[in-house]
Predict the 3D structure of the following.
Amino acid sequence: MIIEQWLIDLAWIVVKILAVVGPLLIAVAYLTLAERRVIGFMQLRKGPNVVGPFGMFQPFADALKLMAKETILPAGADKVVFILAPMLTFILALVAWAVIPFDAGLVLADINVGILYLFAISSLGVYGVIMAGWASNSKYAFLGALRSAAQMVSYEVSMGLVIINVLICVGSLNLSDIIEAQRGMWFALPLFPMFVVFFISTLAETNRAPFDLPEGESELVAGYFVEYSSMSFALFFLGEYANMILMSAMTTVLFLGGWLPPFDFAPFTWIPGPIWFILKIMLCLFVFLWVRATTPRYRYDQLMRLGWKIFLPFSLIYVVLTAGFLMAFDKLPGIGG
Amino acid sequence: MLSSVFFYLFATICCLSGLMVVSSRNPVHSVLFLILAFFNAAGLFILLNAEFLAMLLVVVYVGAVAVLFLFVVMMLDINYSELREGFQKYLPLGLFIGAVLLVELFATFFEYSGNIKSLPSPGDVHNTKALGQIIYTDYVYLFQLAGLILLVAMIGAIALTLRKRVGVRKQVIADQNARTRAETVKLAKVETGAGVKEISR
């Protein structure tokens, strides 16, 4: 009986996980399409519009094409690490969704240290990149991996400080609490500079333009995944886009009030929370694409300068300011509680 | 029951990957196994209800320290066979240190077995808050002292590695911004065949 109950619980957990991962994968597929279409329109082109209505079947055509390709293992590659790296990238992009709350109570695991879990998982993303670069036994891949590792580690520091800013306003590490604390005013308003810093850091963290140096085509061919083909390449690709969605979700949770409607009255409250959440994620993703279509790539020393000499001191000062403000006006949350 | 299953899972993988750290041929694999060991240690922390420490272990050790480790190990041009040569020489020392640690572990185990209390759980305050209370309120001066020591270490490391190289082109943004149009651009009417030699400043 106990085993039976246990199995039912397990099956229920698996169903819940699939309910998150399935739509996520479809979202990833359509994000690739959206990227090409949006950038196409911004550059006065049409983008892929032939396969299916409005090009809706394009992602599936691409996926089928990738699956039909040959998987190549480079000579001299470290085979285990080489195969492990794309898997790791993809898995890490998915496991982080365990703590993302879609609505009040609608979350897989409502853990107390949710934001730290997200931060930890996103900081692990760098391993997929380094392992891929090293295991490929190729100079281009290795150089791309080194750049990426330095970049991701640098921007994590300022991201951590921005998260601290939010945390001292909330007084909890739980994501649902963070969202509930934004009822009335989203943190994007009082912490607007931090919102901007965080968003730019997420661009760097996901290796997106204008910080896509790890894959800078002009110098490194394609960076850390030059040697990958077929499904192993597809996993990197999916991982990158899943990470973009994840980072947008993180921005939404921290600054844009998660599932909360923008105004707490009638026409806005009719729309259910998850819809708001998804709309906000889509807004962030659109900005991701917009930035890619409009900004040139940063030079490497400029990237490091921005991370260490501008964002880091600025977010540190802002932590002091926020803490001082909350202290002075006696608004610190969770004292005694 | 489930938690003990997970305990043995994490503990076994942790021990095995610890073993692989010292025994694997390739130093990069060693570091990757070290990361796996950190991970499982974090899992053990979660089983002890110390989720904050678990996350911190992942963020700090796996997310930052091990990345730099991996960085360094990958950049080194290592001769694997040379690496093996020192094995005989260092074996006694290694065994000695291992024995000392094992004795300490057993001493702790027998001292506290029976009344093992993994973590003090003060009522409804969860351990992140309890930890914050201890570090930032009860022992704030010691904490600041530790921070100061780290600062000194950081400055020392920077002072040791920072060197000014001559002849390196570097972007000085203040200089660039201070330039005016008059001193950078000059409109010249170049006669065909004469070139621009004469008008160069």
Summary: The radius of gyration of chain A is 21 Å. The mean pLDDT of chain A is 84. The first helix of chain A runs from residue 2 to 42. Chain A touches chain B through 27 residues (CB under 8 Å).
